[in-house]
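Hi C.,

You asked whether I'd gotten around to modeling the 648-residue construct. I have! Everything is below, sequence then structure, no commentary in between.
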Amino acid sequence: MNNKKILKGIFFCGLTVCTISLFAQSNRLKFEQVLPDANFNHSFSGFLFDSQGYLWISSGNGLYKYSGYDAKRYQFDPFDPNSISHNIIYTFWIDKKDTIWLGTPEGLCKFDRKTEKFTRYNTSLIPGMPDLANVSAINEDAQGNLWIGNFEGRLWRYNREKGEFLSLTSKLNFQKDKSLSSVFHDIIYFITKDNTGNLWVGNNNGLHLVDLNEKDIGENGINFRHYLNSPSDSNSISANEVLCMRQDHTGTYWIGTVAGLSNLDIKSGKFTRYSSDTRSPLRISNNAVRNIIEDVNGNLWIATENGLNRFNKERTEISSWFENPGVPSGLKASWLTALGLDAGGNLFVSGPGGLQSLVLNQKAFGLLRNDPADLNSISNNQVTAIAEDIRKNIWIGTFGGGLDKWEKETGKFTHYQKNPKNQLGLRSNEIGAILTDSGTNIWVCNNEYLSKLNSETGAFEHFNSNARNLENQDAKNLYSICRDSNGLIWLGTGNGIKSFDPVTKKFNHFFYEAGNPFGISDYTAVFIHADSRDNIWVGTQSIAFNRFDKKTGRFIHYKNNPLDSTSISSNLVNCIYEDSKGNLWIGTFGGGLCQYNYKTDNFTTHSRNKDIPWNTVFSIQEDKIGNIWLGTDEGVSCYFVSQKKFLN
């Protein structure tokens, strides 16, 4: 098997499929196990997604970082002071700088993403700091201060710049004399921030608003407002033991308690209650509400101690799901602890059955796969090239299965394969690249042949590019294809590049010549691109990135210089793309994403950092609003050019 050709196919097709509209055929909810490994088959206390797209999971057995493919666990080491302070993690928080803060039985702990070391907050680090044992809740205000609560009901504000802790426990107005047997009675379950910047604290004695925006500020610039249950007032909160809270897109506050769900009208201070009472037209599956989250469609998801509930966007209907061991795609547990959403809006659910995901928007990705029993399926699963013609048909090149045409409207496949008895058919079932034109022609790289398919007649015309009669198959192969503004077709091959004139039907060859400073830098041209400025750009897998000047017939080489941050980040180039604004993007192997600056003749690099988990870019595509999508070694990434931000 030609591994180079398959690898090259991955380079080309890593992202191209994102331009194909595939729609899921079923609206039925389907839960999937996120961490099927038996080592992770236990309940998690919480999970958060960072800016790089990693899923961080807290548990009773350490901290996990999950990439979507594999998980790494961080555990306590009694002989390593830079390890996590305890394997039991009650809560954790990712701040605005992507720093991870953890609450454990040993107090507060900070994780440094760069060094992968933990810092334990105690009196040896900050003399005179309070005992933060059993931290149960963490959040951050607009000024960057951390707010910390624990199982004993104590609340602090930590000014990180000054290293000062301010105790605010007395402001909660609930600490009373209690016996040692009830030391955990006043646990702070959560600290959350609303869209006005105010904080809310939930504990065993009600819901508490920490008003940081009040003009008539109290002591230390902080005012507290308390919401308590009153047995005689049906418009009070459902119960004083408050477990969770969420503000929805309308600004309504939803509060989970041990006695049901409540929503708060902040202006009137009145609550509306929802319970499991069968007499209620809108009832939840269980009164102990553990977590609440709103999805991108405005639905409210409610995790309880017996079932998952969905409150529709209009808040007129509640649906419920329970543990169903007989259904592989059902919930693994009814007693649920945590909910979360990833960057794609998918729901994550945690309980004793482990972590499960639920795809809420099933329009994003689909899969075309070969089915040996179905002739109307893709011919081979090893896809090497994809292109769309003017009629919106998708042309798919494969390694071993020939060329396929997929009509999206009808779902029909037409297969074009090698047939020794048909001289007008393909010369090989190994397709390297595809180019469509403004008419009915489809140009196909077919080993050493450039083949033109008339899509109306189904007949091929073949042009042999092997002028030197090379015997080595890799040297003969055509790997990439593009067209310049003059109508010439350019080909990246196993020995330099070629141009082909469709009118004269003649090739012009630019072979690799060792020692020629103005020739192409290497044999294999894995990617070729003609930009709008009449340059021909060539990506190779070693030595340099190339720009071919058609006027002089010379190549200019761009090489990585470790001492120059404006040089190209890697000599190994997988793909090249010009966006609608004329920006040239280069995807490299190991060096991330580069943007070529035409004015200064140098590069700007985006590679692995706190916002980017990847270093290799296989493919690049622009969407209709100018965002740049990347197929990388860590999944799909979107670069919002105007904001200079990545979503992974």
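If it helps when you're writing up: The first helix runs from residue 3 to 13.

Thanks,
B.
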